[in-house]
Model the fold of this input.
Amino acid sequence: MFARVCWGYNTPAMSLRQPELFATAPSAEPSLYCDVAVPLPIRGALTYAVPAGMARHVAPGVRVIVPVHGKRLVGYVLGVSERAPGGVSPEVIKPIFHLVEADPVFPEDLLRFLREAADYYLHPIGEVLRTAAPAIDRRRGDDDPSTAGTPGALVKGSAAKRRASLKARWQRVHEETYVKLAAGVAAAPPKLRGDKQAQVYAILAARAEVSMTELRQHVKTAKGVIDGLCERGITELEVREVPDDPFFGAPVPRDVAPELNDAQRDAVTAITAAVEHHERAAFMLYGVTGSGKTEVYLRAMDAAQRKGKGALLLLPEIALTPQLVSRYRARFGDNLAVLHSGLGDADRHAMWKKLHRGEVHVAIGARSAVFAPVRDLGLIIVDEEHDPSFKQDDHFRYNGRDLALLRAHRLGVPCVLGSATPSVESYHAAQEGRYRLLHLPGRATSAPMPDIHVVDLRRVGPKGPTGHELLSLPLVRAIEATLNRSEQAILFLNRRGFAPSVRCAACDQAIECPSCTVALVMHRREGTLRCHYCDFHVPFTGACIVCGGSDVTLLGVGTEKLESAIVNSFPRARVGRLDRDVASGTGAEEVLDKLRRGDIDILVGTQMVTKGHDIPRVTLVGVLNADAALAFPDFRAVERTFQLLSQVSGRAGRRDLLGHVVIQTWQPEHPVLIRARTHDYEGFYQDEVAARAELGYPPFGRLAALRFDGHDEEGVKAAAARLEGVLRAMPEVMAGTIKVLGPAPAPIERLRNRFRMQCLLRATERPPLRRALLRIVELADAQGREGVRVAIDVDPMNML
Ligand code: ADP
Ligand code: ZN
Done:
């Protein structure tokens, strides 16, 4: 344990603007001590003396700057005591440098919850707090460069550099030109030259002002037209900075809540009663895509608010689109904090503050929003609870959904898990009565479920009349029919790039990333070979990057290739693409906007097209290769496949038009395809739960993974073997209470030049597993200091 360690440090001169807060009086005899969690991979807290001037403010949850190993770190006070820790003489205990803020950043209940989370995931508390904390607020006047950057970041680099990066973060704004008619022009319309001028004039006359971006959407040559109009004094320009946040662009008009149907009303009544009675209850809201779950969330959150309680809603990051957010804004107006990964530090901090001070009572966000400091939290909702993105897969490996349940449980308030395809674990809990099942059986708009046609690629062949791979005859016919009806299609393919692998004849294998054991993907537009797991990319010259040989073959189909095949095959259709390559910044939203406006006939994309979009004229969904998800070396592969197929199918025919889904597969007889075709979640669940029971996988067993990685393969193997030795000697393992699988090289053996191994622990009950993990935590930490990282992953999701 590292607690009670005190390092030497020279207190530097500091210029501070809030002297009463930060008055360090090193001569005064400290009478208070505090335990501080610092963001380092150490398990305990460090003890510091509290200078007299700060005593008033130092309390659990307060952020402080402390010396550690000659560096200054941002830490969090966990507790305060009047006595120096036993065996340490007070003189050697270093004082806190200063406070970051006068008030605790974590309210008491949140801090307690975070400590519990750290304990459950066996993760150092300092790193947990750093994950949960807001960025440091620079506007409060603290000029000390040591507080720049994210809290807890090691403080290094020149002050100028830090300020520059800080400035970059502050400038999450862009300049926008606004155009309006010059004063008096509207009263006396000028003579206009040409159609374009007339068109632009008409738009301007109807509105007080219009942004140039919007004008360009109406009239491509708007800029030239405006230049001409400005010259003649007809229009005026103003350049303003506007925030980048796409979620709070134009105001959203308040909506009128629809009359609930019976199933929705029952669900809302049950949740609302639990909110009102402050009842500790977990609900499973199970309803097909489009069954009106979101409306249930809105009503339940509204009920909480009427009771003077706060509400928190979590959803997968890629479901967090401006379109969805506007549904919440339409109901909650400005009483809503949206927490998403695109927020800059300043905005994130502002949101945090508003929640913390109780100015805003409703928060929605992706997984880390589970830490949002919502006041008087009375309800937590997790939408799409089955989504794997709730699990964070590095550093603090938590599951946002599970922490939502924990947080609600500790507060004694209801938690609602919603999904059209619940995770096997959650649905099992509902079957056992641990969660209360609320069921929305049909679509809210009375739109029928889409009809699903499974195409057997073995029989019809993957090449249809167009000659392009993965465009089978039935799919091509379905696309044609959709275009003929002037409706829209979404084609889903889970690989981005042009060709997923490039084979070199001379090397007799696919060209691999030099740092990872994965094939490089050819991106045609960019002209590169790219690794999708690290940053590696090289120009693609048509030659092998290993041997220089030019006999290379492009293999497979990625979204970029599919896009070009579709453009070739349907020359009159307007084709768009949505994947991570086009989605940076506001790219994704632009593509979705086009789809919504009807400017795209066929949208090609990766999972990004599967989530939550509700676009009335999309009536065809094509799944190009259903087998890709099934091929994953993961016991959840079947579950993931069912979820993906159901989610993407749910995009078709959501309103008055009938939806069609075409699923292409090489294994049409696979049970999961039969279940998906008939929208049979129950059937899928029964199949899957039987398989899990047999294998002892969740929900019938508890899992933990130990993950080892390091630059030196032998070192990693040795570390894994040593830990395995310890494990195998444990009585629970010898008695078979805990099964140890591995250690074995991970399916992706090398990632960013680090060799990787993993070891899976499985037990029927949680307590023995936890005891075993507790015994190896310190051993794991010790190896971490020897160059091999060992991470404990409780309830792992990612098996790669
Ligand atoms: P889910 O979240 O289950 O996918 P949504 O809440 O998005 O479903 O609802 C699907 C569509 O049905 C939306 O367009 C929504 O406005 C509409 N809707 C929801 N509830 C009702 C209702 N009670 N009456 C009419 N339309 C409804
Ligand atoms: Zn790589």
